[in-house]
Amino acid sequence: MSALSLRQRALDYLARREHSRQELGRKLKPFVEDGDDLAALLDDFQKRGWISDQRFAEMVVHAKAGRYGKRKVAHELREKGVAEDLVTQATDALDDLQSAKTVWQKKYGVLPETREAWAKQARFLQSRGFGFDVIKRVLKSDPEKQ
Questions:
Q1: What is the 3-state secondary structure (H, E, C) of 19-36?
Q2: pLDDT score recorded for residue 135
Q3: For 1-51, CATH number?
Q4: What pLDDT digit, counting tens, does each position of 30-47 carry?
Q5: Banded pLDDT at 141 (limits 50, 70, 90)
Q6: What Cα–Cα distance (Å) separates residue 90 from each residue in 23, 57, 86?
Q7: Would you call 35 exposed, middle or buried from its count of C-beta atoms within 10 A (0-12, 13-18, 19+)?
Q8: Which pLDDT belongs to residue 36?
Q9: Disulfide engineering: 64 pairs with which of 32, 68, 123, 136, CB 3.0-4.6 Å?
Q10: pLDDT digit string (tens) for 86-101?
Q11: Cβ-count burial of 127 within 10 angstroms (0-12 exposed, 13-18 middle, 19+ buried)?
C-alpha cells in the first residue's frame, strides 16, 4: 500500500466524523506497510487542522451531553487519547445535576419507595457516569419540581 492509499483511508475516516490523533493512528496502524510514515501523516493532518483533539473533545461532549455524566464522558475522551487538560476543559461545561435529573425522569419519573428500588435507580444513574453526590440529590428531590 502506498502513502497515498494510507492518506486516502485517513481522509475517509475523517470524512465520516472527527477523530482524535491517537484514535486515527490506532485505526490506520494495521494498514501501514514498508515505506509508510504514519507519524508524518498524522503530523501533516494536525498541521493542516484536519485532526484536532480539542475539536474531537467538543464533538464528544456535544453528542453525550444530557445523556451521560462528566465521569463517563471524561473516561471516553481519555480512552481516545485526549490530553487531560482538554478533557477537563471540555467537561467543565457539563451540568451533571440537570443531566441526571433529565435521564432519571425519562427512565423512572417516580422516586423510589424501597431500598431495592433506590439501589436500582442509583445503579442506573451510576452506569451513566454520574457521581454519588449527584445521584443522592436526584433521588431525594421532589419529582414535581423537576
A1: CCHHHHHHHHHHHCCCCC
A2: 95
A3: 1.10.10
A4: 998 887 889 999 999 999
A5: low
A6: 18, 6, 6
A7: exposed
A8: 82
A9: 68
A10: 999 999 988 899 999 9
A11: exposed
